[in-house]
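Hey, can you fold this?
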Amino acid sequence: MRELVRRLLVRNGYHVITASDGIEALGVIERDPGAVDLVVSDIVMPRLRGDELESAARSWRDDLPVLLMSGFAHVPAGGAPPGPSLPNVLGKPFTETALLEHVRELLDAAR
């Protein structure tokens, strides 16, 4: 899934730094919090869940947007639209369009 998301984002002009798990991703953020504009993470990961990564990342930069992905049934396919009253969760399976819309909306809201 990580490689698929990376390819979709790169193909659409985004610079992507990948990490093998939440601990590695947190290390990237800790080294240079200003270098990361958005975190995209699965909720279920080894060593550090996506929601834990979000909390830890926000201790370094509280305005950092985070898009979490989930394949669990309680998240609608394509996800709920990001917004203050809804979690920033993209349900799996999702389309390239849904991913790009969520990413763009979160980046625009962070400006």
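Oh, and this one too while you're at it.
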Amino acid sequence: MKNEAQLITYADRLPGGTFRDVQRLLEGSFAGAFGGVHLLPFFHRIDGADAGFDPIDHTQVDARLGTWDDVAALAAQTDVMADVIVNHVSRHSPQFQDYDVEGAASRYADLFLTYHKVFPQGARESELTALHTPRPGLPFTQHEFPRGEPVLLWTTFTSDQIDIDVQHPEGQRYLTAVLTKLHDAGIRAIRLDAVGYAIKKAGTSCFMIPETFSFIADFTAQARALGIDVLVEVHAHYQAQIDVARQVDWVYDFALPPLVLHTLYTRDVSRLMHWLEIRPRNAVTVLDTHDGIGVRDVDGDRRLNAPGLLDRQHIDSLIETIHERSGGPSRHASGSAASNVDTSQVNCTFYDALGRRDGEYLVARAIQCFAPGVPQVYYVGLLAGGNDVELLHRTGVGRDVNRHYYTASELEEQLKRPVVQSLLTLLRLRNAHPAFQGTFHAAAPGIDRMTLVWTHGSAFARLEVNLTEMDAVITCSSDGTGALAWQSSLETRA
């Protein structure tokens, strides 16, 4: 995976809605801004219970987007990352449909996890209350077979997403088939989706337990043997990210979005500077994704008596400020208010979380681009998009507030905005300047100031942030790219 910014997007939510249309944008309006693209689930089908994260067939492309040949053509031009949804499949999948008809006699019976498989002797109340779940209640759904006894299926996210047994040979065959299909299409990076929940073991939280780390290590080795990089997606206490980073290629820096917001809200760099000192360097940095803004990633772990990167008072203030800055929609889209599979996240575009203040938004993006790691920019964030309240009301799904469908005319208008043009310029600088291939140093001249510097030989790029004035200046050595023009409070000096 190249050390260049990546675009995160659904293929169908940009104009045209196909792989070929994504490729045209990367070669046209977005040229130079991205060295790769993370295509959010494009498998059959993309419009199920969880926007593609509940695949019916993980080895088949949704025909509305194109073909595997189209994916391969895109991968031949740029780095492509795809999701491997390791935890579950759709109840509409052919495997589950066979299990539904045949029950225990199905060839796929061992693919699926049930309450009885994990707790064959039954579970004590303490074991059930210890389960780590992203939504309120227990992760089970009662299923009635047309013939035979009913079972409690393990369903971590929704009743349509049936958890699989990744430790059973049938589960391993399933995941190997997915990995092989992606490799054959030229994909060289995968994201392990929901992998923290993949292993279930009685007497544990069933989340990021030692066996989970072993599974991640084994699957990473299998992917690396095919020349595929692995990015792990886990929302958890920050120590889990540090631990996972030691055994995989990349981890998400999910602590960065709430810490950047906290820094800009309070005009205090101390918590962010602490994180920059201890965080993994093999991180994919994000401010926004297809999910909400996670607060679990900066919170403490009460079970382990481990403090967080922010204390509870700061987190409560952070959440309330997001709601205030966004004008209210984030409150209606978050928590248990709107069919959310993770009630600990705040659903809001990052631009709205900053009250649509262009200057602050560009400062946030500059911090993201200068933090060590590979920056990924979500398509709504690239266009400084606001909350899609109409889509939220239409679907009742909280995360849809940050999953807008752009028309061609909308995209054309958004690309004219100075804040979007400035962000594209920033991304092109991040990709092209040789300093970002070198050594990173951070300093805090004051509680309201921070300096992030990259050096590589004689090349340098320096970001100076002044939170009292809420501006930032980028100074960089000449690299032959010509003058860089910035709008709002973010500027460059060469």
